[in-house]
Description:
Elements: E1 2-10, E2 17-23, E3 45-46, H1 49-59, E4 64-70, H2 77-93, E5 98-102, H3 107-111, H4 122-127, E6 131-134, E7 155-158, H5 159-165
Parallel strand pairs: 2-4, 4-5, 5-6
Antiparallel strand pairs: 1-2, 1-3, 6-7
Amino acid sequence: MYYGAIKKTDIANGIGVRVSLFVSGCTHHCKGCFQPQTWDFCYGSPYTKATEREVLDALRHDYIQGLTLLGGEPFEPENQRELVKLLRRVKEYFPQKDIWCYTGYTYETDLAGDSRARCEVTDEMLSMIDVLVDGEFHEEEKNISLRFRGSQNQRLIDLPKTKQQKKIILLEI
């Protein structure tokens, strides 16, 4: 897996001050994407053990609310297989911190149901995410006044409540 950037004090991609990891590789190719360079699976730098340590070290500060995964596409199967290892460590070392993930996939049809996005670690990865921002970016539905998303169709899903109630529960901000 490759990544394009690590932001250690991000306030744009989730509630509070966050550490954000922008992974590389995306097959959605949304019209108007704000980071089309991340469509390339080899964009940026290789993700290594040192990269993981850098992310974990940045999370240790008390003022950090949590981790956000973006892209590119975190739920491309080749990215999931690496990211699930990071999420296990985040939950182990920082159980009080929350995890947000942005995906162009739709929860019900692509991640919870059968699709090309699913692989052997999808369910485990979903079990560690607190907020899933789902849906492709639709340029014709772009709305800059929305919090933490770019287009009207995208949803902020409270995953623990969604799983518990067995229906989509949107995050209340």
